[in-house]
Amino acid sequence: MKLVTYRHTVEAGARLGAIVDDLVVDVAALGQSQNKTLPSRMLELIDAGKPGLAAVLSCLAAAKGGFAAGTATALANVDLLAPIPVPRKNIFGIGLNYVEHIAESARSLDTTKDLPSSR
Predict the structure, then answer these.
(1) CB neighbours of 13 closer than 8 A, spacing ≥ 6?
(2) How many whole angstroms separate alpha carbon 52 and alpha carbon 68?
């Protein structure tokens, strides 16, 4: 199962989807079609943990015969977004694991030219 964050129109908000063949299945709409509550955002699914993922898989398996109207959209008709469009915190990353990057950082950021010790 591939999970995505997508929107189907420019005005629409980000939604949690599962790619099934050439379709993006709206996870929350899928749950609603089966009288279950499923997350509509990737962070909500992450918060739900393994039970949340199991519920999504169960609903997808139950819909194998076909999806209810309004539940699935052709993959070609949606815009895929960053998996987590708005992270809870700012994420900063810096890679000092390359000799060239360390040299570049030392020149531009006035940091040490010494390589990190390998522990």
Answers:
(1) 7
(2) 21
Torsional class of 56: left (φ above 0), alpha (ψ -120 to 50), beta (otherwise): alpha
Distance of CA 100 to the CA centre of its chain: 32
Comparing CA positions, the residue from 15, 26, 109, 2 lying closest to residue 74 is: 26
> For the whole prediction, is pTM greater than 0.85?
no
Task: Report which of 16, 34, 27 is spatially closest to residue 84, judged by C-alpha positions.
Answer: 16
Tens digit of each residue's pLDDT (9 = 90 or more) over 63-113: 987 999 999 999 999 999 999 988 888 876 666 556 777 777 777 777 776
55: closest CA among 68, 38, 40, 43?
38
Q: Give the pLDDT score at 96.
A: 55
